[in-house]
Amino acid sequence: MNEALRRLATYPMVRLDQLKDEAVAAGRTVYDFGTGDPREPTPAPIREACRAGLAEISQYPKVTGLPAMRAAAADYLARCHGVVVDPDTELLPTQGSKEAIFHLPMVLVDHPSSRQLVVYGEPAYPVFEIGALFAQATPHPVRLDPTNHYLLDPDVLGAAVLDRTAVVFLNYPHNPTGQLMPVELMQRWVAAQRRHGFVLVSDECYVDLYFDEKPHSMLEFGKEGVLAVHSLSKRSGMTGYRSGFVAGDAKWIAHYRRFRAGMGVAPTDMVQAAATVAWSDTAHVAERRALFGAKRAVFLELFAQRGMRAYPGSATLFLWVEVPEGFTDQGYCELLLRHGILCSPGSFFGPGQEGFFRLALVPSLDHCRAAAALWPAV
């Protein structure tokens, strides 16, 4: 086994499940704000489409997916972002966003080569690092914090790094902070891609969950050398369905498609039938935004009353909150768990993030209010 893989800690969300199981086994009621897995029902038309798509005979789904699903996803990009993609050559269905992010370094990083770096900002979704390690590439995390507004800037990296970079992963709206990337910075990343030749991969799985300014897709600023990854998990309450897509540069889509069958298959046809309905509708997404906004308001009011500071992100279903003075991130999360509230320590998202914890707005609104009432004073 790759020695770097041996050194990886237990995947953070697995550790959260372990902590929750231990608390429940001890007889405590637990309000789970750890993993980003919302409890709201998947909208009925999506579930109905999934049931209707269940064929009498089960067969392997094609790597390219159903034409109707690809067309619906392409139409979504056109309607919501003004981006025109060819559903046959510039879009490929995936089993959510995590799978694509894990796969892409394997097909985009030559080994060995002078371009071995996979760049991403930290705090980060752990799969950016894990995918790079499985591809035998070199992870290159860049420290993000409030002083740089959690914004990954190509000018800070410089030409010497970018010329050795195979893939840059951007994740905006940002997990865990909710930070958006300004248009000017997105334009500079596209320009940097053209100068240095890396593949720019934009993880946009939270682009539809915003509370103020509507986020942009990187594809609005160019497709050459650019891929965008989208997911229905949070947008449409389909975490267990595992459905998303990657779209952008036809050359790189074809390259990924060439190897995709060796890595797995597209979502099942019945899931793609559900995805077709989900991508075609925005009304249910607006309803989910409003509900997440109501949950968010509960905790922003609580933290303001307690003198706690939440980072002023304006998107995603996460709050990134400073740990009260006198606590470590893990110590404070252990205190919360003793009161039946499970949150993620900031260090789960990378070294140097020990001053924060992440709260995922996944319990019901009533449970959010109940947890706020139990929140311990320090």
A few lines on this structure:
By secondary structure, this protein is α/β, with parallel strands linked by helices. The chain is built from 14 helices and twelve strands.
Structure description:
- This protein has 378 residues and is an alpha/beta fold.
- It has 2 domains: 3-42 and 284-374, Aspartate Aminotransferase, domain 1; 44-280, Type I PLP-dependent aspartate aminotransferase-like (Major domain) (Aspartate Aminotransferase, domain 2, 3-Layer(aba) Sandwich).
- Helices cover 40% and strands 15% of the residues.
- It contains 14 helices and 12 strands.
- It has helices at residues 3-6, 12-25, 44-52, 67-81, 96-108, 127-134, 154-157, 159-162, 183-196, 250-260, 269-280, 283-306, 329-338, 365-374; strands at residues 31-32, 91-94, 117-122, 138-143, 165-171, 199-203, 226-231, 244-248, 318-322, 341-342, 344-345, 356-360.
- The chain has a 7-stranded mixed beta sheet with strand order 2-8-7-6-5-3-4, sandwiched between helices. A 3-stranded antiparallel beta sheet has the order 9-12-11, covered by helices on one side. A two-stranded parallel ribbon has the order 1-10.
- Strand 5 (165-171), helix 9 and strand 6 form a beta-alpha-beta unit.
- The N and C termini lie far apart (45 Å).
- The mean pLDDT is 94.
